[in-house]
Specification:
71% of the residues lie in helices and 2% in strands. By secondary structure, it is an all-alpha fold. A hairpin with a 2-residue loop joins strand 1 and strand 2.
């Protein structure tokens, strides 16, 4: 058994490290306080419930040809997937610096493990929200399940790429964390979460289509119903291209500044 442990491949060591960090992060997030696990669910659910109440008061029943509840919940779940992944990953290095004394643990490992945890948590939260809405008679059966999964994965990858870049930035310039946090509010407003992008007049709609998050959210909504009226610029390949660019830049930054951010 000892020889088997010593002869592990680099991939096996990396996967074991990610697994240990994932379990450590999950334990920390879910048991940080007595109701830590409840707050993870309550925050997005309260946000969604409040917006649903506002749209109900406005007597809006459909947006772009689909149920307002489906339209809104899909947008919120997908944006929260990006936001929480990006936020947790950018702050993943500092709390885990004591672990870098172990040769197997690198700064990038803490970022990736946090991203995986957020994907897991948002999947659970999404299922709970959809199940609760279904109990009230809302039909959440997707028309194109594969496109829905690809959109979710693309949004999560973009959050990972964003987090890889910003995790290095805030280690080199800590004050940049405030600027990055400020960017989340305009990103929320300009991603089509609560404002239909298809209703935005030109040329502003074309400008908004440069936002990769828009393509993920709109693809997910279109996957729910073929009757959904989305923007003509919709292209899921654009989202994945942005994923590749941001992840490549993030990996390059981690490689270049590994010694500085791991101190």
């Amino acid at each position: 058994m000892q020889n088997s442990y010593l002869n592990r491949t680099p991939l096996q060591i990396t996967l074991s490290t990610w697994k240990a960090l994932f379990l450590r992060e999950a334990l920390s997030r879910l048991t940080g306080s007595r109701i830590a696990w409840l707050w993870l669910l309550f925050e997005p659910i309260f946000h969604m419930s409040f917006l649903l109440f506002i749209f109900t008061v406005m007597r809006m029943r459909t947006v772009g040809g689909i149920n307002i509840v489906v339209w809104l919940l899909v947008g919120l779940i997908f944006f929260f997937t990006f936001k929480r992944t990006a936020t947790q990953t950018k702050n993943g290095i500092t709390p885990n610096k004591q672990l870098f004394t172990y040769r197997q643990v690198k700064p990038i490992d803490t970022v990736i493990s946090r991203a995986c945890l957020e994907a897991f948590l948002m999947t659970i939260i999404g299922f709970i929200v959809v199940a609760a809405a279904s109990l009230f008679g809302v039909d959440f059966m997707p028309n194109d399940f594969l496109s829905l999964i690809l959109a979710f994965f693309g949004i999560w990858l973009f959050g990972l790429g964003f987090g890889l870049i910003t995790s290095v930035c805030i280690q080199l310039a800590p004050d940049s964390d405030h600027i990055i946090n400020l960017l989340m509010t305009p990103a929320y407003m300009l991603s089509g979460v609560i404002i239909p992008i298809s209703n935005v007049p030109e040329p502003y709609r074309h400008y908004l289509s440069y936002n990769p998050i828009v393509h993920g959210i709109e693809t997910a909504r279109q996957a729910m119903s073929t009757y959904y009226h989305t923007i003509p610029e919709l292209d899921l390949n654009y989202l994945y291209s942005a994923d590749l660019v941001t992840i490549f830049i993030g990996l390059a930054l981690h490689r270049r500044f590994e010694y500085l951010i791991g101190k």
